[in-house]
Amino acid sequence: MPIYHKLGKLPTKRHTQFEKPDGGLYYEELFGTVGFEGMSSLLYHLHRPTQVKQVGESKDITPKVAVDRNMKARKLIGFQVPPADDFLESRVPLLVNTDLIFGLAAPRKSLRDYFYKNADADELLFIHKGSGVLRTMLGNISFEYGDYLIIPRGMIYQIDFATEDNRLLYLESHHPIYTPKKYRNWFGQLLEHSPYCERDYKLPEQLETYNEKGDFLLKIKKQGYLHELMYGYHPFDVVGYDGYNYPWGFSIHNFEPITGRVHQPPPVHLTFETSAFVVCSFCPRLYDYHPKAVPAPYNHSNIDSDEVLYYVDGDFMSRNDIAQGHITLHPGGIPHGPHPGAMERSLGKTRTDELAVMVDTFRPLMLTEEALKLDDGKYYLSWLSKNEAIN
Ligand SMILES: [Fe+2]
Question: Which UniProt keywords apply (predicted)?
C-alpha cells in the first residue's frame, strides 16, 4: 500500500503477452481496490486464479452482540482470552460496529491446513507476543513483538508462529487502512514531520511460488460468513507482481513520538487512519518540559467517538490498576481522565515507558458476549476517590 513495490518477474509492458519458458502465457490479474480508483497490483499467475472445484460449507461467524447501547466505561482483561490451536478459531471479537471488529487472539498453531482470505475487510494484526512469518500470495513478512501487519482485503494468506505463546490484537476494517493524510505530501511521500517514514516499512519479500495441482481449501470471510471453496491449484502461484496493493508491516518501536513543552493531544500519536476510526501508538517518550507542565493528560470529552486503549507494556501512569493486555473503553458522550492521584503523581516526572495502542471509532462500539466475560464490572467507578467509592 504505502509505496510502489515489485517482486519476482514481470513483462516489460503491462497487459502484453508474458511467455512462460516452456511455452504458453502467464495469467495476469489486476488486484485492485475502490473499484478501479484505489490502489492496485498487477499479478502474474502460473494458472488461472479462477479455478474453483467445489463450494463447500458456509458458517455464520458474525459476532454476538450483548450490549448494543453502551454508556459505561469498561475494562476488559484481555489476557483471559483463551488460547486456541486454530488461527481463525482463536479470534475473539470484543468490540464491534458497522465499520470494524476489534478483537484479541491467542493462536497456538501455525496456519498451514488451509488458506484464508478476508473479502470483507482490511485486517490489522498487532503482535503483542510471539514471532513468525506472515505468508501471502504476494510474499512473506517476518514479524515479532510490536509489529503492526496490514493485510489488505482479498489477500490470500497463511501464518507461521515460532512458538505456541502468541497474543494478537486484530482489527477487521470495512474501510481501507491508510497512513495518515496529514503526514503525506500531495504525491504520497511521508513528510519530515511524520513520526515514521518509508524506510521503516516491512515490505513483503521471498515470493513463494508453487506449481501444484490438487485440492486447496480457501476459507473466505464475506458478509460475516466463512465460506469454504476448494481450488484446483496452489493459491501461491504468483511468479511476479508490482503495484501498491500488498501486505506490509510497521513496528510500533519505530514510531518516533512527538513531544512538546506542554501536553500534546492524542493526534500526535496517530499511526493509521480510515474514514471510520484511527489507530494511535503511545510509545516511550519524554514528558512535557514546561517548568509548570502537568505530564498526566487532562480530562477530556471524546464527545463524538468511542476510545479504546490496549495496554501493551510499561507503566501506565495516568491509570490505576492497569496491566498488560487490559483494554479500556471510554464511550463517547462522557468525559474521562487521569485516575485519582495520577495528576499529582505525574508532576516532576520526565519520561514514560508506556506502550499502548489506541483505537478511536467515530461510531459507537457494541460489546460482544465474549467481551462481557472479560469485563471487570467496576471500572466505571474507578474515578471516585477512595473515600467516595461506593463499592
Ligand atoms: Fe482518552
Answer: Dioxygenase, Iron, Metal-binding, Oxidoreductase
One-letter identity of residue 340: P
When computed from its CA atoms, the radius of gyration of the chain, rounded to whole angstroms, is: 22
Residue 93 CA, ligand 1 centroid: distance in Å:
22
In 3D, which of 186, 180, 237 has the Cα closest to residue 208?
Answer: 237
Centroid of ligand 1 to alpha carbon of 30 (angstroms)? 41
Amino acid in the structure at residue 21: P
Tell me, in angstroms, the distance from the centre of ligand 1 to residue 330's CA: 7
336 marked ligand binding residue: yes
Alpha-carbon separation of residue 247 from 23, 99, 155, 268, 269 (angstroms): 31, 20, 8, 25, 22
Rounded to a whole number of angstroms, the distance between the first and last alpha carbons of the chain is 50
Can 263 be counted among the known catalytic residues? yes
CA 296, 299, 302, 307 torsion-angle sign: positive
Residue type, 103: G
Amino acid (one-letter) located at 391: N
pTM for the structure as a whole = 0.96
Average pLDDT value for residue range 111-116: 98
266-317 per-position pLDDT tens digit: 899 999 999 999 999 999 999 999 999 999 889 998 889 999 999 999 977 6
Residue for grid cell 479462477: 50
- Burial label for 131, CB within 10 Å (0-12, 13-18, 19+), is middle
- Taking a C-beta distance cutoff of 8 angstroms, is the pair 309, 337 a contact? no
Q: Is-contact 33 176, C-beta < 8 A?
A: yes
- Which DSSP letter does residue 202 get? B
